[in-house]
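User: Teach me something about this protein's shape.
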Amino acid sequence: MEEAGRSILEKVPEPISVVMVMEKHPVRYEESMNTVLIQEVIRYNKLLVTVRQTLNDLLKALKGLVVMSQALETMANSIYNNSVPELWASKVRSTLTHNNHGYCFDGLKLKYSCSKCETHSCPLDFSIFVLF
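Assistant: First, the predicted structure itself:
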């Protein structure tokens, strides 16, 4: 269980700088996708913070450093069963994808798109998961 938790934690990217995205792509009438981009970055960052915090708490609980709460136990069972923990799914359901090798963050695509937005122009097309 600890190995699975560490493996997922290593794949969780750092939050995207909302300020940089807002400076590069200000909300304007002519470019309404900027609003969507900023909203999705904020939502994605909330998910990343939740995933990182709950995984760190789970790893501490497995070592006996903190009490294993019911929420952490349920999360551990979900990870063991190779399913998305409810603590994560409740934040942004469309950002997580389940595969046979554990969890992969579709948000990595968003991270790539947003890092391009931070330095270049925003892409003209967005994946469906970014919009919903």
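Now, about its shape. Strands lie at 96-99, 102-105. Residues 1 and 76 are 7 Å apart (CA to CA). If you'd like, I can walk through any region in more detail.
User: That's plenty for now, thanks!
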